[in-house]
Amino acid sequence: MLSCRTSKIAALFAFATAAMALSISPSLAFSSEAQQMCTGDAMRLCGHEVPNIQRITACMARNRAHVSAGCRAVMDREHTARRRAAATADE
């Protein structure tokens, strides 16, 4: 039963990460690195938000200080990409 819940959380987090990446720019593809680096953190910190993808995403952002270094690096790259995309759109 735990394995099923773990798989469901991982799949939902993967979907949330993909949705965030696609919202930045349609040309950005979902990063398997993001799933690999952040799934454990998402389950540990935000498992209570399943199945709501928006809440999982918001929870991860709120708990950024508590995520692993690898996940934080992926989140930082995505944040930088969003800022660049927004700056480009404003020009």
List the helices and strands and how they pair.
Layout: H1 2-24, H2 32-46, H3 53-62, H4 69-90
Helix pairs in contact: 1-2, 1-3, 2-3, 2-4
Can you tell me about this structure?
The radius of gyration is 13 Å and the shape is elongated. Helix 1 crosses helix 2. The N and C termini lie far apart (51 Å). It is 77% helix and 0% strand. The chain contains 4 helices and no strands.
Helix and strand pattern: HHHH
Which band does the percent of strand residues land in? under 5%
Structure annotation, total helices: 4
User: Which structural class matches the secondary elements?
Assistant: mainly alpha
Morphology call: elongated
Low-confidence stretches: 21-30
- Major sheet size, sense and barrel closure: none
Number of E-state strands: 0
- What is the terminal separation in angstroms? 51 Å
**Rg for CA atoms:** 13 Å
Helix share bin? over 70%
Mean pLDDT level: 77
State the gist of this model.
This protein has helices at 2-24, 32-46, 53-62, 69-90.
Jot down its keywords.
91 residues; mainly alpha; 4 helices; 77% helix
